[in-house]
Amino acid sequence: QQQVKQSPQSLIVQKGGISIINCAYENTAFDYFPWYQQFPGKGPALLIAIRPDVSEKKEGRFTISFNKSAKQFSLHIMDSQPGDSATYFCAASSDSNYQLIWGAGTKLIIKP
Amino acid sequence: NAGVTQTPKFQVLKTGQSMTLQCAQDMNHEYMSWYRQDPGMGLRLIHYSVGAGITDQGEVPNGYNVSRSTTEDFPLRLLSAAPSQTSVYFCASSYSGDMGSSYEQYFGPGTRLTVT
Known about the structure:
The structure holds two protein chains of two kinds. By secondary structure, chain A is an all-beta fold.
């Protein structure tokens, strides 16, 4: 019930292509879904987040798509650049508790 | 504004030794937390605090203690180190309101701990 399943584990995309990372959850009480980006040797940093009252949120080249009925959400990176190479984590939480539940992470490599 | 700072950056311990990982933040955040990051397992919450004097257990609390005497500091103590505690440890802080952990978390740079 508490898990967030993330796929793929690793992803290689050509420069200029679209990177897509998927997450699925089971707990219907979750109502906050952030994506964090982590570069080697650094802590994660918030990239973009969504709440279930909208199906999509876009910030620059980064878009979250959210499917409440399927209990899935995904991160799309348009026009992927070598500087986007990092590990991406999805997560989920509910307003009623203080525990952010994390996916296992996706290592993204953008080939120039 | 230093954000979230952690010391040390690297540490090697022998089995059975104890140590304290330090974490401090200067953003006046009420919520602070400790995670461990292991390959293929994402981040797992060890302990968290919603304010000075208030702490609670996360997903993997065994073998770790915390205390929160000030808003700024949230140290993590390893009582008797074991090889299974070899990991990268991250401290994070965030605003704490009526939406639980649903606020942006700011992470420190991490402590890489090896237990031999």
